[in-house]
Amino acid sequence: MFDAQRIVAFSQQETPFYFYDLALLQQTLDAAKQAADIHNFHVHYALKANFNHRLLNAICKAGFGADCVSGNEVKKAVEIGFRSTDIVFAGVGKSDREIKYALTQDIFSFNVESVQELLVIDGLAADQGKKARVALRINPNVDAQTHHYITTGLDENKFGIAQWELPEAIETLRQCQHIELIGIHFHIGSQITDLNVFKSLCVKVNELNNWFDERGFRLRVLNVGGGLGVDYHQPDASLVPDFLGYFSVFANFLERKPGQEVHFELGRALVSQCGSLVSRVLYVKNGIKKNFLILDAGMTELMRPVLYQAYHRIERLDQTESETEMLHYDVVGPICESSDCFGKEVLLPKSERGDLIVIRTAGAYGEVMASHYNLRNEIRYVYSDDIQQS
Ligand SMILES: *Cc1c(COP(=O)(O)O)cnc(C)c1O
């Protein structure tokens, strides 16, 4: 349950801040783990969605692996206590330094995004006298039906190895003495709400799985990435995403060969709903054409609306039953950019300076994207169980 009263209890705190509902996080993690366990699926948490340390600790303790997209994320995962055998490392531009570090940690898999990267990893593994485990990230040209800025699996995207490059990739692999090909990897995009998209992905994975098999590669791992979406419009109606439905698509449509493991990399679906951005109204501007609510939070605290034209539900927190006058507001931040806007024509009870506003479903790709633009303060956050101290 989303507990608005709990946030109100923090209202003496200086705003803006992120509020993390750890009980809801735990409920979400348990649901995901149980649903994955039914099919023996392995789930790695994509650290880039949120690397707040309390969240990471809970996720690690709940038994998830880690999906990293930088050397520092690998380092963070190791420090938090994720087992190196549960860490995967993707990214189109891994530097030598990052690869060397990950090799010293003996991570489970490099998800390799180009033929050239295979050669680089092979050379660096040779220097350390090691054999690197890799999965080829293949661009399956499947349309994720999501915002084009978060689509990653189309021919026009920079990610992964194109299918026409695969013959060259396997020739290269045959020459690489310090690489063991363990599997194939896909990640087609984010905030995917149409499960049919994952069905199409399964069809592609099956085709490619057979293609490798016919060429004598016995793959141990099918890694289908992440991307499961959450409900930004009606968060209270589905605080915990439908993990059962999601995993059952793969259970039904993925053709596993004997001994093959299926791996996932979920980010957004695990942490979105447990996070909210809490802010205060600084000023109200009532105009002829527009009413503006000017908040003390802006794009420097939550960039998704500016970056992806993303929708977030905006609510007045200390709303009383008797309030009847509703107004449409453009809810904006204080940053010197016209795009610094959380929502246009948002219907809210008539508001005034000092009112608390909560921006929902902000646990993923929120705090991690905070910036110092305009020399803004360090982002602040509180946890639901901090309540006693406040
Ligand atoms: C970002 C990312 C994910 C997680 O995506 P979500 O949409 O947050 O589930 C998984 N795998 C890779 C390679 C990524 O870059």
TrEMBL record:
Q: Which domain of life does the protein's organism represent? A: Bacteria
UniProt name for this protein: Diaminopimelate decarboxylase
Q: Which organism is it from?
A: Parapedobacter luteus
Q: What does the subunit comment say?
A: Homodimer.
| CDD domains linked | PLPDE_III_DapDC (cd06828)
Q: Which family does it belong to?
A: Belongs to the Orn/Lys/Arg decarboxylase class-II family. LysA subfamily.
Pfam families recorded:
Orn_Arg_deC_N, Orn_DAP_Arg_deC
Q: Where does the sequence pass through the membrane?
A: none
Pathway it works in: Amino-acid biosynthesis; L-lysine biosynthesis via DAP pathway; L-lysine from DL-2,6-diaminopimelate: step 1/1
Q: Name one GO molecular function term.
A: pyridoxal phosphate binding
One GO biological process this protein is involved in is: lysine biosynthetic process via diaminopimelate
In terms of Gene3D superfamilies, this protein maps to: Alanine racemase, Lyase, Ornithine Decarboxylase, Chain A, domain 1
Q: Please state what class of enzyme this protein is.
A: lyase
Q: Which residues form the Orn/DAP/Arg decarboxylase 2 C-terminal domain?
A: 20-363
Q: What is its EC number?
A: 4.1.1.20
**UniProt-annotated catalytic positions:** 336
Q: Which residues form the Orn/DAP/Arg decarboxylase 2 N-terminal domain?
A: 27-271
